[in-house]
Amino acid sequence: MSSLVDPDLLFPAEPSVRRIARELYGLVKSLPIVSPHGHTEPRWYALNEPFPDPAQLLIVPDHYVFRMLFSQGVRLEDLGVPVLDGAPVETDGRKIWRLFAENYFLFRGTPTRLWFDYVLSDLFGVTEPLTAANADRHYDAIAECLQREEFRPRALFERFNIEVIATTDGALDDLAWHRQIRESGWQGRVITAYRPDAVVDPDFDGFAGNLDRLGEITGCDTGSWAGYLDAHRQRRAYFKSCGATSTDHGHATAETANLSRAAAQELFNRIRAGSTDERERRLFRAQMLTEMAKMSLDDGLVLQVHPGSWRNHSPSMLKRFGRDKGFDIPTSTDYVAALKPLLDAVGLERDLTVIVFTLDESSYARELAPLAGVYPALKLGPAWWFHDSPEGMRRFREMTTETAGFYNTVGFNDDTRAFPSIPARHDVARRVDCAFLARLVSEHRLREDEACELAPELAYTLAKKAYRL
Amino acid sequence: MSSLVDPDLLFPAEPSVRRIARELYGLVKSLPIVSPHGHTEPRWYALNEPFPDPAQLLIVPDHYVFRMLFSQGVRLEDLGVPVLDGAPVETDGRKIWRLFAENYFLFRGTPTRLWFDYVLSDLFGVTEPLTAANADRHYDAIAECLQREEFRPRALFERFNIEVIATTDGALDDLAWHRQIRESGWQGRVITAYRPDAVVDPDFDGFAGNLDRLGEITGCDTGSWAGYLDAHRQRRAYFKSCGATSTDHGHATAETANLSRAAAQELFNRIRAGSTDERERRLFRAQMLTEMAKMSLDDGLVLQVHPGSWRNHSPSMLKRFGRDKGFDIPTSTDYVAALKPLLDAVGLERDLTVIVFTLDESSYARELAPLAGVYPALKLGPAWWFHDSPEGMRRFREMTTETAGFYNTVGFNDDTRAFPSIPARHDVARRVDCAFLARLVSEHRLREDEACELAPELAYTLAKKAYRL
Amino acid sequence: MSSLVDPDLLFPAEPSVRRIARELYGLVKSLPIVSPHGHTEPRWYALNEPFPDPAQLLIVPDHYVFRMLFSQGVRLEDLGVPVLDGAPVETDGRKIWRLFAENYFLFRGTPTRLWFDYVLSDLFGVTEPLTAANADRHYDAIAECLQREEFRPRALFERFNIEVIATTDGALDDLAWHRQIRESGWQGRVITAYRPDAVVDPDFDGFAGNLDRLGEITGCDTGSWAGYLDAHRQRRAYFKSCGATSTDHGHATAETANLSRAAAQELFNRIRAGSTDERERRLFRAQMLTEMAKMSLDDGLVLQVHPGSWRNHSPSMLKRFGRDKGFDIPTSTDYVAALKPLLDAVGLERDLTVIVFTLDESSYARELAPLAGVYPALKLGPAWWFHDSPEGMRRFREMTTETAGFYNTVGFNDDTRAFPSIPARHDVARRVDCAFLARLVSEHRLREDEACELAPELAYTLAKKAYRL
């Protein structure tokens, strides 16, 4: 580690607690990375081409970065973020980088700052804090690195000590990149995850066409409920053949339903016929979560639910820049009533794993820990998205552990598109967990030998086990 | 204390803060236990029989324990939890104990672990952490203790230094065990509390029959509103004669109502006639909270409201195992609108005490502290159930004190069926409060002499005062 | 500072963190006070008359003080709080003061206690903790001070090192005191802020008459939508001429609307005709927030929204004592849906500043930080009202910084009527922020040089910049 990342980063200041945290961290800092949920591109590992310039790699695609700059008056066009109608945006990586460097102070106190400093220092060997004054020098240093063999995706994958990484791919994806990776002979374990939103959510762009396409791909009759379900089964099997151990569902709410076969069929028919009734469309999404859980019982795929984000809150930003531009805003989310139909159906199954995430921290202690602390099928996903941060992860542990314990949680997800930041994100999570454990030990709530057992479980084992990797 | 419970348990690591916490704890650790709200069996104190084997005492009846094991795939049958239809379950205490010991690591970071270690060590003299390897030895040691005179209920009551303990008994209960205790000449102060859910909640099993029975017991005409209210008054008086100083109400929400006499009478008639209108049934429960508060004004009983739990979330578990099996899940709970009718009616009364509990911590700072910080009749119950834990109690103090102060809170409730764990629970609460006060002192927000005054108030005096004991 | 306020007040106990906090605090403790939002009386600065007796200055008008005493059974009449119907109340300041002193222990752990001790010690030179025993002596000492020239409002303003203070004045106010201040030649900068609730909220007492009066004052036809909007524009311009840089809106919810001109006009006509339809009245308030934001785009006034308080929760207290008696209770507040119409209309404007406050801390991390962390027009107001306290401000930083950063926040508001407590309130805020920064530095999440830059920004610069002062 260089001077940008202190060896004691995120450890409590009190010397006796810090000593314990250091010791625990020593047990986990070099463990392989298990990344069971993320959004890196399989293409990168398949083609193994050099990454583009520093700005295109680190700034332009990272909505954590550009949303903060935008909130302070920086135009997205000046950061090189593409406009849907093709209007010109900044393409000079150096200019984008300078603009970022001038505004880097805005990230003080944010996890982006921690991740970014880690990447600068640990990956690119930069030792001086980024400022407007040294922006060009840093840019050159990084650009130089990116041209080298050892900064290509596969080399980084190995350098990062990634044992396995999952991408997230749509139900209609042919997984060609994944096949190409497997056929390439490269040993890196890159697996897929089944994300069927486009063929499950009637509000998804082009839903009807997506169902037609699903029929073509699978040879199933997606005009009928039975055929539609069969098509899912086929795709799930295909995804499994490309390594998938999980499915992922980005619904707006945690609502589930468990209709009779006849009622589900009738609902499907109305939805297939293009029903615009919002309640029916919601009910269909709700029903499909339960269907997916039932299929998981058969094929063993772990089901992940990520509810609670109001996507694309600003219509004019959506229109100009498209999705994923920082305008996804969390909302108050209910789980107790919402998950009940699914839990009534399959919640007591010991061979099923349903991992629930939340953006509403008020549900941690109130709803999610009590639910996960009793239903065998339910596990808690880690602190997610806005809460994937030191304070967020600390609150997660403080608010879930006493009711759900550690063993109903599933380790860390980096959940990121930002490939270079993956080690930074896991490092932050490991440090925060070690700091939490160190506090428990220092307050005699846990013995040190137990913390030494738990630290690697939180950093590594629980993720492998929960995701069946 | 043995090696399983460190003398500095739960005290902050920073030496100067720890020193203050220790000092404060020294003032309270030996204070008598006031337990104004709980669920131990009056039968135990009446008969004073030996407790059964270690598993039947410590595991089988404790839903904190078996729900966690169940969440990780252990079958309740294997833990000896009785099945309603009489299907066979494990009855060998030793086997149950071993299964528990093998899985004891699951409780790391939970309050159950703290309580359990305290019981093992302080009550049974066990000095070695429980593991699969020593399970049998621990079992034998505990079993041996349980056969001794000094481990009978009354002896433990005295050893625990319990000044007074309240049980919770249904409105139809004859309180025979309480009478027997009083007549026995034993000096232990075991009192009752009036819990009328079965005759107040139209959704309660056998509600209509319960009202008939209430009429028989009291000689009041529970077919009329006036007679029904009179019956409550009689029962309350009878409970008072068995020591009761409080009533307790486990409604699903905090909803209250304050109908005119005529409207209430009409509503009662519809309910008595078996109305299935859910709004009417809710309104009746709401109205009855206000009626109870008005009766409290007359007879001085303290009213406790415990809302916000979705009881028996899993219907198949309810059907197989019955109530109280860990499937009660907290929900988002409103107080500001819900309590208004009751507060409009009696909230300004200085001679009334209404104690409100919550399972929704987001209401602490937002609703409950502001309400208790102005209405003379309202006090805050302690951190409850899932939140009766170190982090939960810390959050309670951090989120309520600045608005409601300490003096609008009512000390600690152990709220437990697990008799042997009562000293452990009070000890944890005392330690957490001392740690909180120590932080205030160390940050010069409170003088040390004030903290020395407050510590015994939080541990002892406030409970006595609030519950009129 | 005297012995009542420790130099290390509110700093973490751990010596290395405390050292950093002290150092940061050293940079800000003497910075001028910028008070962009408050409720002091412009009359005080205009007339510069001596303040009345200690009780009338420090107790009778402070709802933080008397609500706590009331919650513990003290009658407001005995504290000198005026009754609307003119019934007699205590007028002997010394008696009121004694009653307060006897009950001063009730404030342990509250911010009122910190502020009060600061005032006693820093302003009045009292060195002994207030008790019943020394109440009279303290009273005499304060009373003696209040007769001196240097305790008159303008002298205190200067002694407090107030660079600028904003009062809050109704839309119909003639701002005569403000004009008098300006014409007096005194250099103290006292500005106004535009609070149009009385002419924007159809539920406001005398709304129709208020609109007539608005028409008279401005010469606009407030019988028409266009004239009504013009009247606002005129008043805003007039307020600007008396220094206003902001408007303030105390709506019950954060609801906004963005109707077409025709629909808005029609709605206005119905409201002007006295519509009693609650939905229409809500919609009108919602629409007016957006109208105000649009006017802000033109005239540069910063818009403040303060939603989420259920005003005058107790009707009998309202009837007897009037508004602002401690019975305003926070409620669960939505921002994501509520602010959308306004944000859709003007949220992307870089020249607009909308400052949002909340009483619902569960919205900090879930809603407000994500919104402020992307919309250029949106900034987060500081921890407010019940949350303007050490724990409240700490939670504010912990729950907003990681997503919104520091620079989407706007410094501190004292928001107070209690003029003598202004330095105390700013001091507490500065200390809490320094403690927070010190923790970040000690955990290597921020460099010390960055914290040294941030501390004065949080204490001084951000408020000036956000409020355009």
From TrEMBL, chains A, B, C:
It catalyses: aldehydo-D-galacturonate = keto-D-tagaturonate; D-glucuronate = D-fructuronate. Belongs to the metallo-dependent hydrolases superfamily. Uronate isomerase family. This is Uronate isomerase. It comes from Mesorhizobium retamae. SUPFAM superfamilies: Metallo-dependent hydrolases. It comes from the Bacteria. Pathway: Carbohydrate metabolism; pentose and glucuronate interconversion. Keywords: Isomerase. It is an enzyme of class 5 (isomerase). GO terms for molecular function: glucuronate isomerase activity. Pfam families: UxaC. NCBIfam families: PRK02925.1 (NF002794). Its EC number is 5.3.1.12. The gene is uxaC.
